[in-house]
Design brief:
By secondary structure, this protein is mainly α. It contains one helix and no strands.
Length: about 50
Amino acid sequence: MSRNNERNIKKHNDKLHKAQDKAKQAVLSRKEKLKQITKKFNEDKASEE
């Protein structure tokens, strides 16, 4: 099966973009989780003092 026709090109691009979006979303969620952990850590540290 070749990617030389429109349908196959579209199928390939959709799959590719879906994978890229998933990777991008994973990065964003990790950043958000890290932000929450940092915030909680700083609050705990401030309450100890």
